[in-house]
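We were asked to recover a plausible sequence for a given structure. The inputs and outputs are reproduced exactly as logged, with field labels preserved.

PROBLEM: sequence recovery
POSITIONS: 419
GIVEN STRUCTURE:
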């Protein structure tokens, strides 16, 4: 059985950043397993710019950002096995892999970083009436068809869901000569970044219709059109139905962390974010197994993915060198009152960084509200926030002494009116 100090599952931006960080911390025996034939993950099809402003202090396309990290992996001599599927991870970190060159094989890893990314929510999960005609794609599939395969999905397009991929594909379809009738969003707010609304919709005159959804799909063999209705309290309003003829329906209705492997090996899952329960070192419920990137929780910026993954890689290196968990009281973080989830789920008092980071998302639009951390009735931290929206991940840097002073679990919440 081959043995490694660290096995990284996934060769996208998270996996590469974790491997690079672990290597720089002194781990030599590292392997990256990637099911695709090249490194880079989803970035390879994201040919638009806007990546790397935080990490590299310049604006890059997705492939350029991926190439920067792939170059680091090569320069540091980190082995990569592409075309390799990870089938299972046991509690004692025996990893079962499948590849065309080696068949099914077990390897032993002293530490593991999970970096499998996420997938799109498919049509079947949306419960839309109608047949399953040709012409319905997730936005990411359409992006791959155009940017990688050079295939145009259609010419008359409707987009359901205002996630960032959907917004970007509204612009991409327009640039390729298609007509995008509108982007429809079930919620009363957009699921994407404001900059993408401006650059991908407003600049091209594409309407964004909030509190609207597709209620019926017309066409049996090929898509002929969709029926859209206004929504209130999650239900279509009778009499607001409108028919849009189209040959293409793109779905951008949310991303789901790719955690089938995580669940199968018995790692505890946080249902609030659909990712693993982790501590401040990004360690899961299995010692020596760490999680980062979109498999842990869905990010809006790849730069945040890289920073988080670097932390996971450094933590894996520390685990291999030390081999045991740091001592100290475990302090749980409990989201309440408008905070959807937190990363991490807990801190260990004996391993706190000088300025630990708490990442979270809110459940609605908050303006001039505050984020508050309490220990029982005692308020430990308060920060005024001008705007918080669900589509943007929030990142709080909290002084170590604030968290270390807690003698019970902490509650993190918003205070202020929701818009």
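RECOVERED SEQUENCE:
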């Amino acid at each position: 059985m081959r043995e490694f100090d660290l096995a990284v599952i996934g060769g996208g931006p998270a996996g590469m950043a974790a491997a690079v960080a672990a290597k720089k911390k002194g781990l030599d025996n590292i392997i990256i397993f990637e099911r695709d034939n090249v490194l880079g993950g989803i970035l390879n099809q994201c040919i638009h710019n806007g990546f790397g402003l935080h990490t590299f202090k310049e604006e890059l396309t997705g492939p350029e950002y991926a190439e920067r990290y792939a170059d680091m992996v090569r320069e540091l001599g980190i082995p990569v096995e592409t075309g390799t599927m990870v089938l299972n991870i046991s509690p004692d970190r025996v990893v079962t892999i499948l590849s065309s060159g080696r068949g099914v094989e077990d390897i032993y890893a002293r530490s593991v970083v999970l970096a499998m990314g996420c997938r799109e929510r498919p049509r079947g999960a949306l419960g839309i009436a109608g047949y399953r005609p040709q012409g319905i794609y997730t936005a990411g599939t359409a992006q791959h068809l155009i940017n990688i395969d050079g295939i145009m999905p259609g010419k008359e397009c409707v987009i359901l869901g205002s996630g960032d991929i959907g917004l970007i594909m509204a612009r991409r379809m327009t640039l390729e000569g298609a007509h995008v009738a509108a982007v429809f969003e079930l919620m009363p707010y957009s699921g994407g970044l404001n900059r993408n609304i401006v650059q991908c919709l407003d600049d091209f005159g594409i309407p964004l219709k909030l509190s609207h959804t597709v209620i019926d799909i017309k066409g049996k063999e090929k898509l002929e059109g969709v029926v859209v209705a206004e929504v209130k309290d999650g239900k279509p309003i009778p009499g607001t139905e409108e028919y849009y003829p189209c040959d293409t329906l793109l779905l951008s209705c949310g991303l789901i962390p790719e955690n089938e492997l995580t669940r199968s090996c018995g790692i505890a899952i946080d249902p609030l974010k659909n990712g693993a329960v982790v501590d401040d070192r990004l360690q899961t419920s299995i010692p020596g197994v760490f999680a980062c990137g979109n498999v842990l929780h869905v990010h809006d910026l790849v730069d945040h993915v890289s920073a988080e993954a670097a932390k996971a890689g450094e933590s894996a290196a520390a685990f291999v060198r030390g081999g045991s968990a740091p001592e100290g009281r475990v302090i749980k973080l409990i989201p309440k009152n408008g905070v959807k989830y937190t990363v991490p789920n807990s801190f260990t008092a004996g391993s706190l960084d000088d300025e630990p980071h708490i990442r979270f998302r809110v459940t609605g639009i908050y303006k001039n509200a505050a984020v508050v951390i309490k220990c029982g009735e005692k308020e430990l931290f308060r920060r005024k926030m001008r705007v918080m929206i669900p589509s943007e991940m929030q990142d709080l840097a909290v002084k170590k002494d604030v968290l270390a002073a807690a003698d019970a679990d902490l509650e993190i919440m918003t205070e202020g009116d929701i818009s």
